[in-house]
Amino acid sequence: MATMTFESSLSSSAMRPPLASAEAPSMADSLPSVNFGFEDLRDRMARFTVRFDEFIEKGRKRVLEERNQFRANLAELHGTFSLLECKLREQATLTTFADDQHMRRRDIEIVTLKTQTHSQTLSKEAQETAEMEVAISELSAQRDDRAAHRDYLREQIGETQKAVAARREAQQKHARYLDSQAKFNVPELDFWQDYLCLRIEGAGMEDRLKFVYSHVSERDWEQEGWFELDMSSREYRVLQYKPKVERDLVDQVLEKLNESRDLGAFLKGMRSLFVEGLK
Predict the structure, then answer these.
(1) Residue 38 and residue 246: Cα distance in Å, rounded?
(2) What 3-state class would DSSP assign to 73?
(3) pLDDT, tens digit, for every residue of 200-209?
């Protein structure tokens, strides 16, 4: 129920929340602890970064080793080709021109086949290198996205922690206020009960109170009069009452309450209406 402010000290106490003890636990003590798993997220990001760096380093080493091996194979191929040419020249004196031409064509076909094979290998390695670079780019983009998401989560965690701290401080402040006002509630409530033969009860709904008067009828001191007051908005409303009195009179007393906020005068006026209605 929202806290209402009245001009008189009696009226302000009547609108205060239910009686609270100084030893009652603070509302702030019931707040749940907040664990966002930030340490686990940071640990997972660190492990991912280490694995990613290892993957990049192994990929670079593999590309470098394959490139060096290809260059060595190409150099060996050139050496082989040169050696074959020397052998062909040496055999030119031992074989006929036809055999020499046949051997040359055969050697050329072999060299051509090897060259084609190495060209295909080079093309394949170039394709694999391009695919690896694409994979590295994608992994780098994922790493950047996760880093940005991590920073966003850090920012959200900071804002949430600030909001929780502010709410906790507000609740602690309200609890201190309730503790400071608790010592005034009991004496003032006793005054209302003794002076107007009045007791205050809950009406079963939030922002709604039931005021019960006793000794309102001279013929029957046990008969009671009561009314329910709705305080959910700034303009108070009397929803139900008993005994039956003219509604216009009730509205007049209620109008004075909404204008002056003098709850004491309103309670006196309602008791007077009940007393007059039971005469």
Answers:
(1) 66
(2) helix
(3) 888 778 888 8
Separate counts of helices (H) and strands (E) for the chain:
5, 4
Q: Order of strands across the sheet with 198-202?
A: 198-202, 208-214, 224-230, 237-242
Q: Which one-letter DSSP state was computed for residue 243?
A: S
> pLDDT of 44-84, one tens digit each?
888 888 888 888 888 888 888 888 988 888 888 888 878 87
The neighbouring-strand residues paired with 211 are 200, 227
Buried b (16+ CB within 10 A) or exposed e, 42-75: eeeeeeeeeeeeeeeeebeeeeeeeeeeeeeeee
Q: Judge whether 164 and 31 are in contact, CB under 8 Å.
A: yes
Specify the length of the chain in residues.
279
DSSP codes of every residue in 12-58: HHHTSPSP--TTSPPGGGGPPP----HHHHHHHHHHHHHHHHHHHHH
Q: What is the phi-psi region of residue 241: left when phi exceeds 0, alpha when psi lies from -120 to 50, beta otherwise?
A: beta
The gap from C-alpha 160 to its chain's centroid, in whole angstroms, comes to 7
Rounded to 5 degrees, what are φ and ψ at 5?
A: -115, 130
